[in-house]
Amino acid sequence: MAGDPMNIFDIAGRAMSAQLVRLNATASNMANAGNVTGSEKSAYRAIRPVFQSVTEKPGVSTVTVDRVVTTDAKPVKRHDPNHPLADANGDVFEAAVDSSAELVDMLESARMYQNNVQVLQTAKSLMLETIRIGK
């Protein structure tokens, strides 16, 4: 299929796949929000997919996930000498995840996914109507 031209189903399907990766990354970030560790180096940092446009010709374009990167956000250092994971100074490091931003990203990616589902449903309906008219 590498030589076949992209159609609306390929375009929307690839976009849905990319948004699914984005949703999975957000879910991972949310799952790790609030986690603490005893060192800054081992603290969880949020991950983000990097999208790349795939253009076949003008007007025919979609998206793919190029890679998933770790953000450079710094973990939050908190003094808690009674925590079992505290370092020698009594500090723990909380995951570098902004829960509010993650919720916004989750809603946005879910909406984008939903939009592409609607594109597929509309295309299917139009094709079926065209076939019905042709009979």
Give a nutshell description of this structure.
The chain has 135 residues and is of the alpha+beta class. The chain has two helices and five strands, in the order αβββββα. The chain has helices at 8-32, 99-134; strands spanning 36-37, 47-57, 60-70, 76-79, 91-94.
Integer tally of domains: 1
Give the tally of β-strands.
Answer: 5
Task: Give the integer mean of the pLDDT values.
Answer: 92
The share of residues in extended strands comes to: 15-25%
GO cellular component, one term: bacterial-type flagellum basal body, rod
Main location: other
Keywords: Bacterial flagellum, Cell projection, Cilium, Flagellum
Pfam families: Flg_bb_rod, Flg_bbr_C
Characteristic key phrases:
single chain, 2 helices, 5 strands, alpha+beta, three-stranded antiparallel beta sheet, two-stranded antiparallel sheet, 135 residues, 45% helix
